[in-house]
Specification:
Elements: H1 3-6, E1 7-12, E2 26-33, E3 39-46, H2 47-63, H3 66-73
Antiparallel strand pairs: 1-2, 2-3
Amino acid sequence: MRANRVFQLTVSRGGREPAFLNRRRVDRIEVCSIADSEPILYWELPAKQAASLLRRLRADLASTEAEEFLSLWEDADRPG
């Protein structure tokens, strides 16, 4: 089954201002399982980095199977 049918992407912006006006804004990105609403992946990033990550996550969610998506991203939310 496609990853976008198994996982939900949630974005919380750290403020109302656009990123170019507030360079210190931190956005939160969460990938949750639709079946049980449990978070699978989580990031807190500066707004510009978050926007880039969102594009990659959305593309992978739409183009990969659920197992493949997890294998691609399973260690991506861990520091270092």
